[in-house]
Amino acid sequence: MLRHRGRHPAAHAREWHARALRALSPGQRALLEALVPADHSYTPDFLTPVPRPGESMPEVAARIAATPEEEVDYQLDIAIRGRRVWPDVLALHRSEAAYERWRRPMPPALATVAREGGAAVATAAATAMEALFASVLAPDWPRVRAVLDADIGNRADRMAAHGAAAVLDDLGERMRWTGTELVLERAYSGIIDWADEGVLFVPVTTHTGPVLFAAERPHTPVLFYRARGIGALGERPAGPAESALTGLVGVTRAALLTTLDAPASTVELSRRTGWSNATVSYHLGILLRAGLVDRHRRGRVVRYARTDLGTALAVDRRYGLPARRRST
């Protein structure tokens, strides 16, 4: 989601939103803003189908478009005032009046498409989502994937070393782990008991605020949370210089090189970037052998620092300047 709900979005999200304003047609932009409101906590789950390994955006869009009409209609009914009230949804709220206050008016852009039924909404949303990805996110997708993969690796390492509680306790605000249950603080109340299904944890780079939860049978429940290390996405302006250095040393090593403004240990770099210690150590080893970083030990701590060559590459890349060869 590129729009924020009462919070200041990260720099990369602001840039993506600006791109979307320029690239999407007014109709596509209005529809996505109607489906993903900045002033309401609910977004229809059909927009974010359960991820599948190796799936391309056109394949995701095809799954969105193929969402059963009754599923789309049900999800629109949940939060749109004036549409059907479902007893199971009403039961989650303190009263019918509280539920009606929680619902929101039907946005005009959504009303136009919804008159043709849920299938039309799914098709139009899929087309807009695919256009959004192609024109806004695709240029940065390798870097985004690097951040997401690093977050998953970091949390897997922590879970293996310290157990599930070490991961769940800091996943996001307004969520806690009791030892037997995940509890999310919401304006409504309900119990999801899908012991045989488990829960899928999905990191995202644009979300601010409480952990998001999607639970729609027969799909696996999903938790969406803010990934670690997203600062790396906003530190470096996109441009020819960035592409050149990324192509030279790779996305992860380029990020580490620009992060090393001051000497830092593997642990410190892991905290800054969100990548696991093993990932940081591996890529630092490659930068070390290439002569782009150096390392110094003080007691038990080993700190890495950029060499003159590494600094020249990082500074030239940051400001979009071509590297210059010194005359002799």
From TrEMBL:
Keywords on this record? DNA-binding, Transcription, Transcription regulation
Entry-linked Gene3D superfamilies: Winged helix-like DNA-binding domain superfamily/Winged helix DNA-binding domain
Positions of the HTH arsR-type domain: 243-318
- Could you tell me which SMART domains the record lists for this protein? HTH_ARSR
Return the protein name.
Transcriptional regulator
Give the source lineage, highest ranks first: Bacteria, Bacillati, Actinomycetota, Actinomycetes, Kitasatosporales
